[in-house]
Amino acid sequence: MPRLPRVYIENSVYYITCNGLQNQVIFKDTRDYEMYFGLLRKYKDQYGAKLYAYTLLHNHLHLLMEVDNKSSISTMMHDLTSSYTKYFNGRYDRKGHLFRERFKAAVVEKDPQILLNLTAYIHLNSDRLNIAIQGQTYEYSSYGLYLEYSQASDRGLDIKNEIEKIINGLIGENYLEFIQRMQGDEEFKKHYKKLQRKGIIGSKDFMNHVQQEIDLQRQEPNNPRVEENKSGIKNKFISAGTALLLVAITAGGAYLYFDYNAQQKKTAETKGSAAVTEQRLIDLNNTEWQIEMFNIDGSVARSDIISFVQGKFTSGYFSQFKFPNINYSTVMEGNKIIWETIQTSAEGTASWRGEVVKDQMLGMVSLQLNGKQTENLSFKSLKFMRK
To answer: Mean per-residue pLDDT for 4-12?
Structure first.
């Protein structure tokens, strides 16, 4: 698919593909697949997206999704692939990119028959690659949900309504019969491969409309609905340099806010060691932080000591859940360091994100232990030291 600008087109959805770098494996076992599903669920809820169909294969994946005009498909997919890459690199002790490039997306007309045909194209991928004798037996695809929907097997993605809208387009046959008919239709496969390469899937009128919308929005200066593909241009859906740290927590829909300016003012009023308060933190390596964690209602949950040593992150408190020392990633934004990591063990997952300015750290952690409700906590630093 060509790299069209990411524009919001009314009455359309996105057919998305992501490929492993040099076709390398991106899902090695069940835990990897389940981690991706968990992150997909998180960002789907966070961005208010709709998911119509999916297939995850060992070295690439397919998604059929819809976002509204308040969200950005690029921002959502960036967060999703970035978070999964951090998890994968940490688990397998690797560095660098995991995916071949940023995701590819085709704009799809929201026509019942077009969407129905596209779900067949997505679901037949596992069949064409001989992963299963029949596609419905492949557990990392939505195919089985189209045949018989079960909340116990939808991994919390909650796509029953989306599936029903597509299945309602069937006339005189059920979904299995439809797939079997499409399975032997070579012209159907060639047709969708060709349309996929064009980056637009739909009627001729729809294709013309999309192109006109792209041309029109490109001509409008500072149009927030256009996401250009040029390096160095920030996504207009993200406000840069804001003083307010907003952390969107997963499925529960809770949001934690930290007014960093207020925190800085409070810190300035607190007299401490001159050597500490005047020190400008350049990087996190070989630092240790005493932090205090808070529940959503603001009450203190617990204290912890987190460390960044020789490129590895560790949490003293979370080590009881057998979370290993793990790689972490950092990005500099002006005088601010942003770091992220995901710890996994047989007992669950902990997703960390923090922001550091000078000697102060604020952030959030989402703890998901097997069989327990997700615990979403914010945290702030009390002090730090060089090791």
So the answer is: 60
Which stretch of DSSP H or E encloses residue 216?
A: helix 204-219
Taking only the tens place, the pLDDT of each residue in 56-104 is: 999 999 999 998 776 778 888 988 998 999 999 989 988 888 998 778 8
Residue 241 has pLDDT above 50, yes or no: no
54 forms beta bridges with: 63
Q: Torsion angle of alpha carbons 118, 122, 125, 131, nearest 10°?
A: -150
- Least Cα distance to 146 among 64, 201, 235 occurs for 64
For residue 355, the number of C-alpha atoms closer than 13 Å in the C-beta half-sphere is: 19
Lowest mean pLDDT among 22-31, 47-56, 161-170, 203-212: 203-212
Q: Cα torsion at 139, 165, 150, 49 (round to 10°)?
A: 70
Instruction: List all residues 6 or more positions away from 38 whose beta carbon is below 8 Å from its beta carbon.
Output: 155, 349, 368
Of 65-69, 143-147, 375-379, which gets the smallest average pLDDT? 65-69
Which tokens sit at 253?
Answer: 């829909």
Q: Where are the domains of the chain?
A: 6-227, 244-386
| Residues in the chain, total | 387
Q: What is the pLDDT of residue 334?
A: 80
pLDDT band at 7 (very low <50, low <70, confident <90, very high): low
pTM: 0.62
Q: What pLDDT does residue 20 have?
A: 93
Count CB atoms within 10 A of the CB of residue 256. Answer: 20
**Which pair of structure tokens corresponds to residue 110?**
């929201």
Q: Nearest Cα to 146, choosing from 115, 114, 109, 192?
A: 115
As a CATH number, domain 244-386 is: 2.40.160
Separation between Cα atoms, residue 66 and residue 206, nearest integer Å: 16
Instruction: For residues 60 and 226, give the distance between their C-alpha atoms in angstroms, rounded to a whole number.
Output: 27
Domain 6-227 has CATH 2.60.120.1440: no
Reported as type and span, the H/E element at residue 333 is strand 329-333
Q: How far apart are CA 5 and CA 8, in angstroms?
A: 10
Look up residue 134 and give its DSSP letter.
S
Using alpha carbons, select from 2, 9, 3, 4 the residue that is nearest to residue 225.
9
Pairing of strands 104-109, 226-227: unpaired
